[in-house]
Amino acid sequence: MSGGGNVLLHVATMQPDRVRAMVLVSATSHFPDQARAIMRNYTFDLLPREEQEKMRRRHPGGQAQIDTIFAQARAFADSYDDLNFAAQDLAKITARPFYPLQISVDMATAIPQATLYIVRGGGHGPIGGERWPDFVKTASAFLL
């Protein structure tokens, strides 16, 4: 999901034979301008308290680790060399992909054998909470 999905895009374009199928959630081929604007102002303090507490529990490196993660996310706002997959890059992917973002329409068009699954109103993390069982069922059927 998210940054992990973006890493998977790199693997699938650089070493397509290593990936037979993939499920990308909230991953993208590039960062559109509206995402970059959000990234520039993205801080830990903007998160609801509940999300801050979840992050504190998940990151054993403490606040320093969390601050580094947010600094990296802000740095993507002005980076154009990492996530900039052109159609010919995406065409190298031999895995059957599965994408739940609107921007994925272009990716699904460029990637052979793609299937697109859009979770309406799902936001950046459309697979959690009450949607998790449906996601698991759909993704599992896709991957088999």
Q: Main sheet, how many strands, which sense, barrel?
A: 2 strands, parallel
Query: N-to-C terminal Cα separation, in Å?
Result: 19 Å
Instruction: Name the beta content range.
Output: under 5%
How many distinct beta strands?
2
CATH topology of the largest domain: Rossmann fold
> What is the CATH architecture annotation of the largest domain?
3-Layer(aba) Sandwich
Tally of helical segments: 7
**Biggest sheet strand line-up:** 1-2
C-alpha Rg (nearest Å)? 16 Å
Percent of residues in helices: 40-55%
CATH top level label of the largest domain = Alpha Beta
Gross morphology is globular
Helix vs. strand class: mainly alpha
Summarize the structure.
The chain has 144 residues and is mostly helical. Helix content is 47%, strand content 3%. The chain contains seven helices and two strands; from the N terminus they run H-H-H-H-H-E-H-E-H.
Entry keywords:
mainly alpha, 2 strands, Rossmann fold, 7 helices, 144 residues, 3% strand, globular, single chain, two-stranded parallel sheet
Report on the structure:
It is a single chain. The protein is an all-alpha fold. Strands 1-2 form a two-stranded parallel ribbon. 47% of the residues lie in helices and 3% in strands. The protein folds into 2 domains: 1-30 and 85-144, Alpha/Beta hydrolase fold, catalytic domain (Rossmann fold, 3-Layer(aba) Sandwich), CATH 3.40.50.1820; 31-82, no CATH class. The protein is globular and about 40 Å long. Helix 6 links the parallel strand 1 and strand 2 (115-116).
